[in-house]
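Memo to structure team: turn this sequence into structure tokens by end of day. - J.P.
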Amino acid sequence: MSKMNVYMKMKHYSLEKFTSSALSLLANASDESLIRLTYLAEKIPRKESYREKIRWIRELFKQRHPGLQVAKRILKEINPLHRKKIITNFIVNQLLIGTNRRKEFEAKTGVYPPDALLISPTMRCNLKCDGCYSGDYPQGEELELEVIDRVIAEGKEMGIHLVLLTGGEPFLRTDIFELFEKHGDVGFHIYTNATLIDEKVVDRIAKLGNVMPAISLEGLQEHTDSRRGKGRFEKGVRVMDLLREAGLFFTVSTTQTRFNTDILTSDEFIDFLVGKGCIIMWNFYYVPIGRDPDMNMMTTPRQRNHMRDRLRYFRATKPMLFVDFWNDGHLTGGCIAGGRKYLHINARGDVEPCVFCHFASDNIREKSLLEVLNSPLFRAIRARQPFSENNMRPCMLIDQPHQGRDLALNYASYFTHPGAQGLFTDLAPQIDRYAEEYGTIVDAHWQELCAEEKELEAGGKHA
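Reply from structure team:
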């Protein structure tokens, strides 16, 4: 091993130990101590966009934003191993050191790696939820553990230490625990229906420390059981209780439809999640792809805008974090697909631009991660991003459907399951109308946001 490699390993280890120790000591520290810590964190990433995010977090802390309570919960409420792994893998490896490694990788190859990898080890599932986006994938094939292991290793070389698993139901693959154990320096976030998680599984997760489940709910009992089956809500709640009792953090994943918007946007539901110990709510929208595509399940444009408004309120008032896969386009600079910030590898190995983009040109069994990122399809996607000047309309499927159609029909080599082309052919007129109607609602909000940012920028220059 060269002297430079030894030096870098020692530097990495020293930063990891210092950060982990410092944050552990801050578990009972004052708000001011946490604010001071952001100044240290700001010096580590080389990428300006990450330094800006850290400064933004610091301002929220100074305003005593509820997000400060989330940071305290991470430091104080969870078991020591889980805390150490969250700090080491999610904060040090992924956010601090990882950003620098991704910049170095770009300098060597000309390709900036995504922030995260989303992988489906299996498309098998023990439920048959209405409108499941993955319901029409072939069920027979599964991605070999050796292939997943190789992809994770390639990702780490690029500076990627965040891997999300979905499906199907990932916990149908009991061998994934081998990956969690082997790649202890990676944070794994698992989207699960929670039906296969019991005391023994929670105990295994607790002993690993680097796994955080994301439990799928459709709201409270009525809406969850209606879409997922009787007793599914009660089972999910039981799993949340087990995780909390073990000192493990978890998140909740919701799919917003026309029928559950009212409950998902209610204080009742969010207060329920906070009370159960949930740290993040991931909100996705139903997209008419997969099992029995149905435009009537989609949120109306007004419902989608209502969720945007409510999340602004929740972020300002609730001690929890919120991620909206579509409405947060203004925070991510537009669409994140095509390897810009993430990609999806399905159980057959097809590398899709996004978990909702069911088309591909390459299979990961045959190519490296770098080759896929360099593919004509992925390069074309990244060259067009953002797809709109209005980043509140980021998606190439439902906001800028002309872009998605062109990429799927003219750049991709194949669709990844039977019927996937229907979103771009049969449903095209209805999707176009949806996009146009939502645009008339949100364009004015985008102009307001841009004006506010210009005002703040001008105020900063005069300060």
